[in-house]
TrEMBL record:
EC number: 6.5.1.2
Positions bound to Zn(2+): C431, C434, C449, C454
GO cellular component entries: cytosol
BRCT domain location: 613-682
Protein name: DNA ligase
GO MF annotations in UniProt: DNA binding; DNA ligase (NAD+) activity; metal ion binding
Single GO biological process annotation from the record: DNA replication
Catalytic activity: NAD(+) + (deoxyribonucleotide)n-3'-hydroxyl + 5'-phospho-(deoxyribonucleotide)m = (deoxyribonucleotide)n+m + AMP + beta-nicotinamide D-nucleotide
Cofactor: Mg(2+); Mn(2+)
């Protein structure tokens, strides 16, 4: 490899034991630094250049060895170690941060004429006779993000937000392997003191397809397009989830720290280790820009990521400064948007699928047609209102496109080609799975089956229960669940825990080893936490967050069963609608019987709740945490407060007792000061947490901002 660990000599003036320990530490530190450099080098080759030099196994061995060294000497682990990319605290919310300079959006052009008009505006805004160069870049269909580096190290990442203020997503961005945690400085050059990198976080097409397959396997809804998937992945509360989503990043601009020409800034970013689009080009006229756009449009579908246009930027930064911005759009840049590819085809039928909550979802069956490089034969119709609004009928000729060039959707009907005998489509009044009546509740777009024992509900509910987000039973996907139901080996989730290897081996594609592994996975799921069990039960309106709130608040299944709607609705972030749904579910005799069976089978139905004293300074107090604290993650601090009896809220009001403010606290701190709420910093929070009797004084502005 490129770096070799240096031999170390024992330090003088110490005992033999101390000398040996110091020598071991020095050797471990040297080896760890060598491994970090090698791992960063190979991550750059793999995630940025797509040119790996070693196998995945070799990379994994280096990472395992580095983790061993860091576990032995944890005090020597830098914050930007490659091992720190994955894992992290769960953030109950994202703090707001102010961008160093506004993160502007772009105006759009849809025709050559609009591009020519843009060019004329640029030239009229500059001194007469000025030569103008444009940098042409693909418009990546993702999520804009700002990355702040101080002395070469990533310290903050934020979404665009409103252009002035965005969300702090640093913990999640650190898991994206195409984003360097440390700038790659060549030939010993000193890193810039401050660098603001702007770019697009996106999900490659292959990762998007794989994610949707996993979601279907888990009984979850598909993402509509890669951009939607990228946005949802970046804003996960748990960075571990983000790390599993295969996000990537293209750097496309520099805020603070830019070079004199935009193209030079792109070259600098590439030198620093960022992925920069290989499809950018410098042109010297608007005609050349239009030619670039046409050429790029002809080949963009072969790329591994989605693009929805091309961007023109004035190359010279001093000219950008002269032109300035209007509102939120710069006068020196514009995005040309490609029209979506569309196709006509015949709608042959509409079929209905029933989900785990009983929702009837219509799907269009189409005459197969080629669209955006693939054959399309089905398209979602969403719900009854969507069909009525577009007056979609069986037999119609329809125009379809692909949302994000992935998910087929019906845009509109070609009325001129409608057959005379077509009739408006009516959603079924009976469930196609069980024949029971369907209903549509006020305020909802969905039709639902009214049969609580509908086979579809049971099947989809079983798939959800075993899914990764709930009980995480590996090897128990939809195909296995369907076979178990067909073989009448299970009726509800409790039957999963009675399965034997002998019963499973008779299933298709289920050998002895697979059967044995599935039995072990089912048994292991008994240890899942109570909140995951609640989520897995599929109670309407109860997602993972609400399930955790319920489990933490009530502690045991017995306490939850004894609660009424008013008590449940009193929990922060749980309203009357959710509370009524929980009470209705728990009031059902069959659901109570199910919970009893699951408890008898050994599933975990209790959250570990620490005993608290009413004498503690935080007991019964409402607290809000905002900003970034020096040593504590916000989720960690909130949990510490809840463990001593505090109530944690996400917003500041007159009822708030304390606001714990860290760096870049933002609007919540401002509101607290306006309302006269007591504001403390991390040090004061920890002092009071230890049982101190009173606040020693509110934090100064400098303390609040660290």
């Amino acid at each position: 490899m490129r770096l070799k660990p240096e031999k170390q000599k024992p330090p003088k003036g110490s005992t033999i034991k101390e000398a040996v320990m110091e020598l071991e530490r020095a050797q471990a530190k040297n080896e760890a630094e060598h491994l970090r450099a090698e791992i960063r080098h190979h991550e750059f080759l793999y995630y940025v250049l797509d040119a790996p030099e070693i196998t995945d196994a070799e990379y994994d061995r280096m990472l395992v060895r580095l983790r061993e060294l860091e576990a032995a000497w944890p005090d020597d682990v830098p914050a930007d170690s490659p091992t720190r990319r994955v894992g992290g605290k769960v953030n109950p919310e994202f703090t707001e941060v102010r961008h160093l300079t506004p993160l502007l959006s772009l105006g759009n052009a849809f025709s050559d004429a609009e591009l020519v008009a843009f060019d004329q505006r640029v030239r009229s805004g500059l001194p007469e006779g000025s030569a103008v160069e444009y940098v042409m870049e693909p418009k990546i269909d993702g999520l804009a993000c700002s990355l702040i580096y101080e002395n070469g190290r990533l310290v903050r990442a934020a979404t665009r937000g409103d252009g002035v203020t965005g969300e702090n997503v640093t913990a999640n961005v650190r898991t994206i392997r195409s984003i360097p945690l440390v700038l790659n400085m060549k030939n010993g050059a000193a890193p810039p003191e401050l660098l603001d990198v702007r770019g697009e976080i996106y999900m490659p097409r292959h990762a998007f397809m794989q994610l949707n397959e996993q979601r279907l396997e888990a009984g979850e809804s598909e993402f509509a397009n890669p951009r939607n998937a990228a946005a949802g992945s970046l804003r996960q509360l748990d960075p571990n989830v983000t790390a599993q989503r295969s996000l990537s990043f293209f750097a496309y601009a520099v805020g603070e720290g830019a070079r004199d020409k935009h193209a030079d800034s792109l070259a600098m970013l590439a030198d620093y280790g960022f992925k920069v689009s290989e499809n950018y080009s410098i042109v010297k006229s608007i005609d050349a820009a239009i030619e670039y756009i046409r050429d790029f449009d002809s080949r963009r579908k072969s790329l591994a990521y989605d693009t929805d246009g091309a961007v023109l930027k004035v190359n010279a930064v001093y000219q950008q400064d002269i032109l300035g911005a209007t509102g939120k759009d710069p006068r020196w840049a514009i995005a040309f948007k490609f029209p979506p590819e569309q196709a006509e085809t015949r709608l042959e039928d509409i079929v209905i699928q029933v989900g785990r909550t009983g929702v009837l979802t219509p799907t269009a069956v189409l005459t197969p047609v080629r669209l955006s490089g693939s054959t399309v034969s089905r398209a979602t119709l969403h719900n009854e209102d969507f069909i009525k609004a577009k007056d979609i009928r069986i037999g119609d000729t329809v125009v379809i496109n692909k949302a994000g060039e992935i998910i087929p959707e019906v845009l509109h009907v070609v009325l001129g080609k409608r057959p005379e005998d077509t009739k408006p489509y009516a959603m079924p009044q009976e469930c196609p799975e069980c024949g029971w009546a369907v209903e549509r509740k006020d305020g909802e777009a969905a039709l639902r089956c009214t049969n609580p024992h509908c086979p579809a509900l049971g099947r989809e509910g079983l798939i959800h229960f075993a899914s990764k987000g709930a009980m995480d039973i590996e090897g128990c996907g939809p195909a296995v669940i369907n076979q178990l139901l067909e073989a009448e080996l299970i009726r509800d989730v409790s039957d999963l825990y009675l399965l034997t290897k002998e019963q499973l081996v008779v299933l298709d594609r289920m050998g002895e080893k697979s059967a044995e592994n599935l039995v072990k996975a089912i048994a292991a799921s008994k240890e899942q936490s109570f909140d995951r069990l609640l989520f897995g039960l599929g109670i309407r309106h109860v997602g993972a967050k609400v399930a955790r709130l319920l489990a933490v608040h009530f502690g045991t299944v017995e306490n939850l069963l004894a609660a009424d709607a008013e008590q449940i609705a009193a929990i922060d972030d749980i309203g009357p609608k959710i509370a009524e749904s929980v009470v209705t579910y728990l009031a059902s005799p069959s659901n109570r019987d199910l919970l009893t069976r699951l408890k008898e089978l050994g599933l975990n139905m209790e959250m570990q709740v620490q005993a608290v004293s009413e004498e503690h300074p935080f007991y019964g107090k409402t607290m809000v945490f905002t900003g970034t604290m020096p040593t504590l993650g916000r989720a960690e601090a909130q949990t510490m407060a809840q463990d001593v009896g505090a109530k944690v809220s996400g917003s500041v009001s007159k009822k708030t007792d304390y606001v714990v403010a860290g760096a870049e606290a933002g609007s919540k701190l401002t509101k607290a000061e306006q309302l006269g709420v007591t504001v403390i910093d991390e040090a004061e929070f920890l002092r009071l947490l230890s049982g101190a009797a009173e606040v020693s004084g509110t934090a100064t502005k400098e303390q609040k901002l660290f």
